[in-house]
Amino acid sequence: MRIVLVGPPGAGKGTQAVRLAKELKIPHISTGDLFRANISRKTELGKLAKSYMDAGNLVPDEVTIAMAKDRMEQEDAVNGFLLDGFPRNVAQAEALDELLKTEKIKLDAVLDLEVPEEEVVKRIAGRRLCRNKAEHVFHVTYTPPKAEGVCDVCGGELYQRDDDSEDTVRTRLEVYHTQTEPIIDYYKAQGLVATISALGAVDEVTKRALDALKRDGDEEK
Ligand code: AP5
Ligand code: MG
């Protein structure tokens, strides 16, 4: 399957992507995680991306599209992928369509995670990530690690993202509404959007997402 995950910052895209990717046996491709890996390796791309990310703005399309394309063309993504955080504006959605057309493949679904703004703010404020692996994500009250500041999975140090400060989150939410939300209409016109509530326990949301994807698949038959 080829799936795009969309939703505001803190909706739980990363949390759900890890589970859905495992269940559907496709790689999880997060442009945010790819940028953060570049930042920690101190690459030129990382330096450029950091200046935009710290302000809560989008990294320019040209470098983002090139990076996403490069990742989607890797061996493990031949039979499908789950995109998390890409595309993030209509220009990126159009670039993805072009790429898919060249490869003669199609998206199966766009899963839209709906969460009220006050919940998103709470989720972001309590989020802690593992220095060793981007996919080990915790929340200080909702899904706390057994020992404070230590990753349950690998023992790595937990940290707070630089762009999770109150001011930056406000900008990220505004960028989501003005630049990213229009892609939902773009994909609705292609009949691809399945909207689900991302409220409730992590497992419940995963179940809702899998049911929605299955429903979509059944309708196409
Ligand atoms: P990115 O890393 O994609 O961040 P984002 O979209 O702002 O989303 P987040 O990662 O903050 O939230 P999430 O939805 O993944 O939530 P999570 O699962 O962690 O992008 C960061 C920046 O990179 C952008 O601002 C931009 O600068 C740049 N960038 C990236 N892609 C780009 C692109 N295509 N073009 C241009 N620039 C780009 O969950 C949040 C918290 O909630 C966690 O603590 C989690 O444990 C908890 N949680 C999750 N689910 C639940 C639940 N059901 N109940 C309770 N708690 C929960
Ligand atoms: Mg994320």
From TrEMBL:
Catalytic activity: AMP + ATP = 2 ADP
EC number: 2.7.4.3
Domain Guanylate kinase-like: 1-214
GO cellular component: cytoplasm
Binding site residues for ATP: G10, A11, G12, K13, G14, T15, R127, V137, F138, G200
Broad enzyme group: transferase
NMP, as annotated region: 30-59
Molecular functions per Gene Ontology: AMP kinase activity; ATP binding
Subcellular location as annotated: Cytoplasm
Protein's pathway: Purine metabolism; AMP biosynthesis via salvage pathway; AMP from ADP: step 1/1
Xref: NCBIfam families: adk, PRK00279.1-2, PRK00279.1-3, PRK14527.1
Primary role: Catalyzes the reversible transfer of the terminal phosphate group between ATP and AMP. Plays an important role in cellular energy homeostasis and in adenine nucleotide metabolism.
Protein's name in the database: Adenylate kinase
Organism (species): Streptomyces fuscichromogenes
